[in-house]
Amino acid sequence: MNKRRIIAILIALVVTFAATAMWTASTIEREGDPDAIVLEDSGADVGIQPKKGGNKIVKVIAAPFKAFGRLFGRGGNDENKLHRMTEKDAERFESVGVTKIDDARNQSEKKVTAASSAREHLDEGRALLLEGNYNDAISALSLAVSLDPKLTEAHNLLGVAYDKKGFAERAKDSFERAVKLEEDAETLNNLGFSLYQNGNYRAAVDRLKRAAKLAPTDERILNNLGLAYCRLGKVDEAFKAFTRATGPLSGNLNMAKMMERFAREDDAIRYYEAARQIDANNTIALRRLTDLYQRVGRSADADSARAALAIASNNTISVGR
């Protein structure tokens, strides 16, 4: 067996494992709004801000290996799984007198008192939040807002931390306090998406529209607005929001995915066909059209889409070489 064949086999094995692990990562332990997850899986920015987690491409490459680690109980931050915070814990964090362990290796304790400034606790909470240490982030940010109730960013980030822990009502309350203090695009977006997650779609649209006026090109805000419009049944407005977010091709694809979720197959076909008018060889549109045409009894169209998909896929492989 020559060297080239061995390399080809190894590549095939890696690709197969990666695809399996990515599927596992996308179907096991997924938390959050199902509609938002559909868009997020296609690469769209949705949900609560800030989402500062590094390069997207690096995340995609690393996802299979992280999923493999999770399957065997290794790797990643298990803080959310093994030490899930309760509502009672959250109430305790709202008091000022808190003791926390600085370093598990030396077990040294740091007394957190009112002598520390609210800004210092805000900075600490922000760093902990970005690290994914949500329990301690809530502790630090709760201290910050206790010391300075008018610290807008602390309320906003506290809402983000609560959202990450699954405390939807507490997150909404924190975002509302932040918006009352200062209506900036980020806090309005966070409150809007929080309202959306709680099923209050009209109020969500109101806040997200105000956020979009302040940040008219923000992809995340516009995608959130599109989701809220979808839930209100305002399809045209949703399409406009998705298109403003990432352009006509993504706008049509995102609308098609939402129509599929709502079992509106004819509308989904219409948006996928519109995507094909923009990019005739778009494999996402062709793959879904093949299935949808077959489902609604348009066998000839399904065969045509399947043939076009085969050609487009071969062309993509050829270009990759």
Folded structure, characterized:
72% of the residues lie in helices and 3% in strands. With 321 residues, it is mainly alpha-helical. Among the domains are: 84-182, Serine Threonine Protein Phosphatase 5, Tetratricopeptide repeat; 247-321, Alpha Horseshoe (Serine Threonine Protein Phosphatase 5, Tetratricopeptide repeat). Strands 1-2 form a two-stranded antiparallel sheet. Strand 1 and strand 2 (108-112) form a beta hairpin. The longest helix has 25 residues, at 3-27. The chain is elongated and about 70 Å long. The two termini are 22 Å apart.
Can you lay out the helices and strands and say which pair or pack?
Blueprint: H1 3-27, H2 34-41, H3 56-71, H4 79-82, H5 87-93, E1 98-103, E2 108-112, H6 118-131, H7 134-147, H8 152-165, H9 168-181, H10 185-197, H11 201-214, H12 219-232, H13 235-246, H14 248-261, H15 265-278, H16 283-295, H17 299-320
Antiparallel strand pairs: 1-2
Helix pairs in contact: 1-3, 6-7, 6-8, 7-8, 8-9, 9-10, 10-11, 10-12, 11-12, 12-13, 13-14, 14-15, 15-16, 16-17
